[in-house]
Amino acid sequence: MKRMIAAILIAFFTFAPFGFTSTPSPANSILPLYTNDGKQIVCTAFVINTEKRYLMTADHCIAVVEQPMVKGVNAWEVGHYPMLDISILEAPAAYQLPALRVRPADAPLSYDEPITMYGFASGHTRLKVMDGKTIFPIITVANLPRIFTLYRPSAISGMSGGPVLDTNNRVVTIIMQGKDDADLSISTEMNQIYEATKEFWESNGQ
User: Fold this and answer.
1) Cis ω before 153 (30° cut-off from 0)
2) To the nearest 5 percent, what fractions of the chain are helix, strand and coil?
3) CA torsion, points 153, 155, 156, 160, in degrees to nearest 10?
4) Coil, helix or strand for 176?
5) What pLDDT digit, counting tens, does each position of 136-169 carry?
6) Which of 195, 84, 205 is nearest to 146 (CA)?
7) Which residues pair with 65 in a beta bridge?
8) Which of 33, 100, 119, 129 fits a 20 to 30 Å CA distance from 42?
9) Against a cut of 0.90, is the pTM above it?
10) How far is residue 49's CA from residue 94's CA, in Å, rounded to a whole number?
11) Are 166 and 115 in contact (CB under 8 A)?
12) Are 59 and 84 in contact (CB under 8 A)?
């Protein structure tokens, strides 16, 4: 009888009936970025190309790390976009990890749209997940070529470089800067990021 019950349970979770799915969690694609000695988490990165082992993070994260490490192995910067605060890393640790998809340009963010922020806040090894909403999907500033997205809540130190996802787990921007007293975060707008870095994304990126 015990063997029969065990077999039923195994079949239940293996075939995932009644609406259960095997869709991978976005957390599988998000990694902590360590200092060159591998002892301290400084930021967050996420996989954008499985085959080529590319990660995306915020450029200001790389500026404070002489040699970034991911999962105890060195990572190398192969794309540098300081005006957008974006850096692309080649990391052996990204091997076989699923890449996140970017939201298509023909599906722009709307006001008050639900989003989720992911990152390794305050140097903790446990991934922090924060639900929020967009405030201004597109912000332009006179004499600045960079376009911004404003959303809430405020990002926490260490989450920089982590992805901001929509309800379909597609990347809508990258965590860059938070303002605690206003409970706001501001980042470079995603279409601008993608146009500059699309050569690094997997072919299903957009």
Assistant:
1) yes
2) 20, 35, 40
3) 160
4) coil
5) 999 998 888 899 999 999 999 999 999 999 999 9
6) 84
7) none
8) 100
9) no
10) 8
11) yes
12) yes
